[in-house]
Structures are given as C-alpha cells and as structure tokens.
Design brief:
Elements (H helix, E strand, L loop, with lengths): L1 H7 L10 H7 L6 H11 L4 E4 L6 H16 L13 E4 L3 H17 L6 E4 L5 H9 L4 E4 L1 H9 L3 H5 L4 E4 L2 H5 L2 H16 L4 E6 L5 H7 L12 E4 L9
Parallel strand pairs: 1-6, 1-7, 2-4, 2-5, 3-4, 5-6
Helix pairs in contact: 3-4, 7-10
C-alpha cells in the first residue's frame, strides 16, 4: 500500500517513453489511477478499475499493453510474427470500432510499431481468415467472436503468447448469459496462456468483489480476488 500511495503522488513516475513525452506534448499529466494500474499489472496482477465516464479508464486499461508492446519494438525482418498480445472484449461491436479509432490516434502520434484490428460480425471473411494466420498485436472483439476463435483448431497457436485480456463495461458482461459463456472462454484462455493478466473496466458496480472474483482463476474452496482501484469524479465539462 505504501508503494501504491507513492505512485499516486508522483504523476510521471513509472510512465515509460514515449508515453511520458506524449503526455507532455499534449499538455496532460497521467492520472493517478492510470499509473497505479500500470504499476500493478507490471507485477502481473489482474485488476478491476472502477471509474466514471471521463476519468480516462480506457487509456488506463490499454497503457500496460501499449507499454509492453512499445518496449518489444518491431520484429526483425523475415522473422515470424509474435502473435496476439492483447485481447479487448467489448459488449458492443460499435464500441470496439470506436476504441480502434480512439486508440489508433495516440499510437500513430507516438509512431508505435503496434497493429490494432477489430473482429466483429461485420468483419469481412477474408480479413477474419487472415487474422487467424497473421494476428494483430491488439485485437478488439466481442464475446461471440472470442468463442468462435477458441473453437478453431489453431486456437492454441493463436493465443499462446497472449499477455492481457481487457474487459470493457465488465458489469454489463458478467450479469447475463453472455457472462457465463465468457467465463468459460476466459478459463480456456488461461489454459492456453497461463501468464495472462486480466483488466476489468467498469463505470458502475453493485458488488465489486463479485467482479474481482470473476477476473481471476478460482480453485476449490478459494476466494481469490483481483486487485481493485476506484476513482471518484470524472472529467469536468468545458463550457
């Protein structure tokens, strides 16, 4: 807890380049919860971030993955791709498309060697086939598409290097039948990629511990919980 408090009071500590420089050129500072989430996931700890709209939770959720990918750099010419690194699960395909557009801007501005793609029911068949053999670094998709990918015979190869799974609007995902199917899919992902870290993003939560429990694997008679960061107050409107 002392280490977390230290991070919360040091705005640029722990933020690698080129991200620190990008924040400065935009006249911004990373928010305490963004740095706290980056620190926790850097220790391979799954986390739940509860933050209101306008608090920058989407960027917070992607910062750990973007940082790792930026440090990884470009693959050597002629080398095999390193496979899927991060999976983003959205309850709505339109939200996945919006995230691709919003995430693409800072990636382009920092000239990061990161490929981001969506995979929804609207994605052309030829693109979906290509993604199976040449996956992007970050794939933005839906629970249904994840189930289809896991049912494929090449799922083991496709997901073996997966490092992060980000769940957006987690409260709306787990409270339905989709949530049960998604929990089964997540269990399968943990088998294929045992080192993966989960990040749950949510604006409103009735029972935070229920979501914290959902984000991590459970052994019989255990009550493992993901970490939790809660934020109060979103961005003030500019009138």
């Amino acid at each position: 807890m002392n280490e977390l408090n230290r991070q919360l009071n040091m705005p640029l500590d722990g933020l690698p380049e080129p991200f620190a420089g990008w924040f400065i050129t935009r006249g911004w500072q990373p928010r305490p919860h963004q740095l706290a989430l980056l620190e926790a996931t850097g220790k391979r700890k799954s986390m739940l971030l509860i933050a209101p709209t306008g608090a920058g939770k989407t960027l917070a959720g992607f910062l750990p993955a973007l940082s790792e990918l930026a440090l990884r750099g470009k693959p050597k010419p002629g080398s095999a791709g390193q496979g899927l690194h991060t999976l983003y699960i959205s309850p709505l395909k339109a939200l996945a498309v919006d995230i691709e557009r919003n995430l693409g801007q800072p990636v382009a501005e920092m000239e990061l060697p990161i490929r981001i793609e969506t995979r929804t029911g609207d994605t052309p068949q030829h693109k979906r086939q290509r993604q199976k053999t040449n996956p992007p670094d970050i794939l933005l998709t839906t629970p249904e598409q994840l189930s289809l990918l896991l049912a494929n015979g090449q799922a083991g190869q496709f997901f073996k290097n997966l490092r992060f799974v980000i769940f957006d609007e987690l409260h709306s995902l787990v409270t339905s039948k989709r949530g049960h199917l998604l929990a089964l899919a997540l269990s399968r992902l943990r088998t294929l990629a045992p080192e993966l870290v989960t990040i749950g993003l949510s604006a409103t939560v009735a029972d935070p511990e229920d979501l914290q429990r959902w984000l991590v694997g459970q052994e019989p008679d255990s009550n493992a919980l993901a970490g939790r960061i809660e934020v109060t107050g979103g961005a003030k409107p500019n009138i």
